[in-house]
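Q: I'm writing up a methods section and want to include an example of the input and output format. Could you take the sequence below and give the corresponding predicted structure tokens, formatted cleanly so I can copy it straight into the document?
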Amino acid sequence: MKTFTTTPTRPLTLAAAMAALLAGCGTAPRALLLPQLAAATPATLQACSNLASSLALPDTRITSSELVAAGPITVQGNTTQAPAHCLVKGKMKERTGPVDGASYAIGFEMRLPQNWNGRFLHQANGGLDGSVVTALGAVSGAAPVAPGLVQGFAVLSSDAGHAAPTPFFGLDPQARLDYGYQAVGTLTPMAKNLIKSAYGKAPDRSYIAGCSNGGRHAMVAASRYAEQYDGVLAGNPGFSLPKAATAQLWKAQQYAKVSTPGANSQPDLSTAVTPAEFKLIGNQIVARCDALDGATDGQVNDVKACQTTFNLQTDVPSCTGARDGSCLTPAQKTVLASIFAGPKNSKGEALYPGTWFDPGVAGRNFAFWHFNAPATRDAGAVAFLFTTPPSTMEAFKATTGLQFAMNFSMETDYPKMFATSGPYAEPSWSYMTPPNAADLGTLKNRGAKMMVYHGVADGVFSPIDTANWMDRVQANHGGKADDFARLFLVPGMNHCSGGPAADQFDMLAPLVAWVEQGKAPDSVTANARGAGAKVVNAELPASWSANRTRPLCVYPKVARYNGTGDVESASSFSCK
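A: Here is the clean output for your methods example:
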């Protein structure tokens, strides 16, 4: 008989659980219906330098394994004191692509701490993958203060099956599938076997976490590999990535309508809305929506209420003369209203959700995704990864990224993400997205947990898309999804970090506490990165305390001021 447990040491049979539910007033906690997973137990590293010569794993070549002394590791300008650990590097599934003749493999590294907490962390990386970044386990919040390796996890990082962060691997059918989901499925059992060889036991608990495309990897794992992972942490997840990338090209077309020509006669998208004009919009959003959460503190927590309170047409001054940063032209307002609403086809059907008006629209990262990314990132991704069949190298190089964006048709090209062709037997929409994303039954039924966070001012992946997903999950699971999956919106935050936001937080430790101790996180405390922080956020308003903290609340709750107390302190706010 399958057993359920309320604690790791007190088994509760299914019959007893049902009796408890029926006893008394019948108000037993819903959590009794779900298994409680036992906590991981620590172990000490037993093998390292000999792993390369002694370990035999299917389709795997260990290229090096060496001990690394405790000391600093710097990743993207953020230095962390890492514990002593074993660094293992290798490759899986080495092959030659049948279409382009290029060499392919799933490259990886693992960092195995000397003093291990018994847990495995799959660090899902962002962007187009294509490089094995340091397996530090920095998987949540900006300039994380407690990455997974520091917390004692054995951490895996990979390139997801191709060796360069460019989209041209989309010519190879298998590389497409590896990027979409199969690399995770291939790496997971290998990593667990390697951990067993290094410590003498397999991991007690396994987690997968990442932001952006890493958040997408995590979302896909929650659907495809729920039996393999006990905890899933997905940040700013691009789980509808093909649609989001095509929406980026559509945005470029809209901004081109109010852009001035650049030196090459192509539209200079950055002239469509200047930094001063985005700052104006952000300031007007604050003016209208700041007090909706009960505190006038330069921060908008009640983002949904703000969407009906703030009106772009009437709350932002209209230009009667030249543009000088103090107004917007009617044409600019028309374009911005369309972009924030999201793309539609000629039938009026929504093709991808828009985004919310939030003070974070003034963030530099927001502008990057609107003006720079369509030509430099999204054009290539759409051409080679999200269009079937993919573009040829010759055709793509015959134009520019911006020209590709300008020529992209939401009527005839957009549907190609759902197409198959010859060796490309699986559509990009299928291999990139979680199958039936609203059904987390497998994850739920085995006692696993999922936490998702999303910056409200994400310039590329719609936070509305993620909120709508959470609504569907709740509906699909009878309004009880909070028992195993929770979403946290981060006001002001751009894509994974940045913007006028308290964007430094650790969601990995709360996820572990939820999975292994049953402590469901009602909120997560986030810090602003003001003066004195390890990596200072230069976009914080001058009126904020450098040490501002805020509670990030479980969607759809909002952090509201209690009416008394320091407005710079999370303790003065409650999730309601």
